[in-house]
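hey so i finally got around to running the thing on that chain from the lab meeting. sorry it took forever, my laptop kept dying and i had to restart like 3 times. anyway pasting the input first so we r on the same page abt which one it is
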Amino acid sequence: MADLDDPPLPWSTRLWFAFACFFRVLFDAQFAARAWQARAAAALPPAERHREGGAPRLPGAAEVAKKEPAPAPSAAPTPPAAPAPPAAPAVTSALQLLALLQREGRLVDFLEQDIASFGDADVGVAARMVHEGCRKALRGHAKLAPVRREDEGATVTLEAGYSPAEVKLIGNVSGSAPYRGVLRHRGWRAETISLPTPVAGHDASIIAPAEVEL
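ok and heres what got predicted. didnt touch it at all, straight out
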């Protein structure tokens, strides 16, 4: 066997030799084994390659297997994208109520319609229909009550410790409670609300399905 430290072969010779070795390794098992051993010997450090007065030490197949790095584990298949998490219960309830207002009163259609070019009479007719349907849907699924029991326009006094969530101060606000003012809006409080239970697989984000007439 030639010395592994011989000068490198020219490129044209290497090209011819590469083709020759390719088919020889493919069809000649003995030649393939010798080529494998020569490859393994070339990878050894010089101290192990040249022993005193002898040819380079060629490791056996078992030693080659030990020296060869273990193949990297194949990458795990990418898991399919997880489905979008379901909407929070509060969001689902809001979407359900909006769907009810659309179904009974066409609220979304009315709000999304450009009414700038409509006459007042046309807008009034449409608003009456939307009002009737939305009122039916709201009263069928929610019980509402005014926050304040006084009539609008009445004078009221807010003592210290009143709930800012229940009463909003407007106008010229200064100083501290007690406040005395005029009730402009009684506010609304939801006492009960009852919405349909969503069925499995229902997409609450679909407020109203598209309609195709056949």
